[in-house]
Specification:
- This protein is an all-alpha fold and 86 residues long.
- It has a domain of 60 residues.
- Helices cover 52% and strands 0% of the residues.
- Helix 2 packs across helix 3 and helix 3 packs across helix 4.
Amino acid sequence: MPLVDHEHLSPVPQYLRVDTDVVDRLSAEQRAWKNFRDAGVNVKEWARSRGFNPALVYSVLRGERKCLRGQSHEVAVALGLKSPTN
């Protein structure tokens, strides 16, 4: 017997639905953190070696910036969070 009987599940209420764009962005940020850990690279050193302010890089990684333009966008592109044309 399956753990969940999918035939009797009710639809998810609107207030519990998750915006897929938010989930995609978070997973990209989590992948960036994982890449740093896996490579044994310090975020601060990575930022300085590329001419970025370390505090800005941390803000981008935490999702505190929209990264629409300027240096935060450049950081997001360098991290692989956004494509260069976005």
